[in-house]
Amino acid sequence: MTSYNTWQSPLSSRYASKEMLDLFSSRHRHSTWRQLWIWLAEAQRELGLDVSEGAISQMLARRILTDEDFEVAAVEERRRRHDVMAHVHAFGVAAPEAAGIVHWGATSCYVTDNAELILLRDGLDLLLPKLATCVQKLSDFAQQWKDLPCLGFTHLQPAQLTTVGKRACLWIQDLLMDLRNLERARSDLRFRGAKGTTGSQASFLQIFHGDHAKVEQLDELVTKKAGFPNAFTISAQTYSRKVDLDVSNALGSFGATCQRMTNDIRHLASMKEVEEPFESDQIGSSAMAYKRNPMRSERICSLGRKLASLSHAFSETYAAQWFERTLDDSAIRRMDIPEAFLLCDALLILLQNVSSGLVVYPAVIEQHVAAELPFMATENIIMKIVEKGGSRQEAHEKIRVLSHQAAHIVKMEGKANDLVERAKRDEYFRGITPQEWEDLLDARTFVGRAPEQVVKFLGQEVEAALKPYAQKIATASEAELQV
What we know:
This protein is mainly α. The protein has 20 helices and 4 strands.
């Protein structure tokens, strides 16, 4: 049977990276279970329990599951209806000398939950440098276009000018918040460790004949072997599902940022001011051959919406847990945790691709600025009249009348904004010289400190945030889309 005969997630067939797909693969997950059993056996041996060196050697030799191992486990699970015990059995078949000590004193969540925490940690370690790379790409864009005036928009209506680079810094600032959120989620992760059935460590206390110190040492040893600085002191059968919710909130917030940013890009593309990359052989529409649809940004909005929506499911799963644990968290987490990371990974690939190839059309931007600038310049014109000894109120009334006349021909006749030409012809404004008119209408004087803000923001906040990722950013490969 080929893959075309069964449903596949588009995340695996179209969007996510190989390294993230590998991380959440069944082989990696269940091989991580085996590694956890090895660490437990090693720690038990180091603390004096009867675990032979031969048992550990056999376990190490069969740490990575083969296809045959999966088949053995599948047969056992159909019989037992218990995935962990099926894999305990399969590991015992593969390493017979260890069959009697695999999972000694542990509960299922020793492998399921600790493995999940390892996947969360390693998944965040894959995502963080990719996000930092996207920020760097956008920072390069912001630096390049920090001085180019463009229309600002409030209420989606033309407002005071900003610059192309300053607007990009709005996106970057939100992405820095996402970077911080993911870093915090990563640094907050702790190992579940060896806690037993309800988190009390009673089974391990029995194994060590009431020696509390050795139980604590066991917990510390497996935590250290797994590469975590510390473990939860308190847990139930599972680690708190609040951890999953915390991570999902950080991922979901990034999904919202992606939508926010690419919605701007989609609007800018409709105005022909800024476009995402468009390949020479790319087709925008099956019917309208001339179209250059922003399909990358639209895909980002779509995947970002899905990612942001998952936080609600994680919240419900956490809230639905009873006492020390209920199993209604299991099936949904099998889907939601991998999906959240694969979605975030796919978004970062797309975001890097877009950020690396944004195209700016200065002539179009200047044309749009020129259409609105006369209205924006009215306050400056009034101030110039006052500077020359005129009345502010008289100047205001003159400009009000001329503005309404100009607006009429723009809206009713579809003609260009001729407010400035009307003012130049009006005897009242004859005192303003041609050079002064040119200075009054220089778009660069309407952007305030936008260029300086870009330089300060990039040089201080962005540079500091990206410093830990400098090497990863320098060696990052180009983000290529599969489709």
